[in-house]
Write a structure and sequence with these properties.
about 55% helix; about 100 residues; 2 strands; elongated; about 5% strand; mainly alpha
Length: about 100
């Protein structure tokens, strides 16, 4: 709303209309990732089991970040920071005791 050289936001202003869609999108993102992860269930069961609480945590933090952050990049940054780092798939695996011959 403007009056002369002054401007003021009104309740009907579309400035913060991104908050609800982003918050719900950030809730559904980990859920969708878990559904896709179910395809890996037979080979990597621990990934799916560990991913459920991780997805719940990231979804909750993402919803709060989407509602409370000052802009979209800040909300995405807070959500990304809440996700734990995945294990290193390139790390060499050892079997047994590992001793030499």
């Amino acid at each position: 709303m403007g009056f002369g050289g002054d401007e003021q936001e009104t309740w009907a202003s579309p400035v913060d209309d991104w908050r609800w869609p982003l918050a719900f999108g950030l809730i559904l993102l980990p859920l969708g990732a878990r559904v896709l992860g179910l395809g890996r269930w037979q080979r990597h069961r621990w990934l799916v089991i560990a991913g459920v609480p991780t997805g719940a945590l990231v979804g909750c933090v993402g919803c709060v970040a989407g509602m409370e952050a000052s802009d979209v990049p800040n909300a995405l940054l807070v959500t990304a920071a809440s996700a734990p780092l995945p294990p290193r798939p390139w790390a060499p695996r050892t079997r047994g005791g590992g001793g030499g011959a």
